[in-house]
Amino acid sequence: MAETIFGLDSAAVRDQGSLQPTCPKCHALIPEDVINKVELTPCTQCRSALQVEVFPALFRRPVIEGSGDIALVDGEATCFYHSSKKAVLPCHGCGRFLCALCDCDLNGEHFCPSCLETGKTKGRIKNLERHRTLYDTIALHLAVLPLAVLIFWFATFITAPMALFIAIRYWNAPRSIIPRTKIRYIVAIVIAALEIVAWAIGIYALSGGFRA
Amino acid sequence: MPEGEYQRLTRPRVRHKNILSSVSTRSSLWLGKDHLLSIDSNRYSEEYKRFYFRDIQAITIRTTKRRATWNLVFGLLFIIWLGTFVSVDAVQRTNPFFALWFVFLGVPLLLNNTMGPTCATYLRTAVQIEVLPSLNRVRRARRILDRIRPAIMAAQEQQVP
Question: Which of A98, A155, B91, B124 places its Cα 20 to 30 Å from the Cα of A181?
Answer without folding.
Answer: A155
